[in-house]
Amino acid sequence: MGTSDGRVHRxxxxxxxxxxxxxxxxxxxxxxxxxxxxxxxTGVPPGEFRQLQVDGEVELTVEHAEQDEFxxxxxxxxxxx
Length: 81
Prior knowledge:
The chain is mainly beta. It has strands at residues 9-17, 22-26, 34-37, 41-42, 57-67, 70-79. A five-stranded mixed β-barrel has the order 1-2-3-6-5.
């Protein structure tokens, strides 16, 4: 398991693979891109699919963890606006 400082960061969705349920967020707070799984997306009305919009702004908490080729993984994500 990775480690997190618990801070909430802001970022922008670079890509989202609807069929696979994951995507990538970039944040000025980190040099590396952040891997995001649909299960970490919050604030979605009941019955709607958890996903993010490309170029959408998000708030997220991040942990240092190896996930595929990524070194950062989101543990909580919410769309802003």
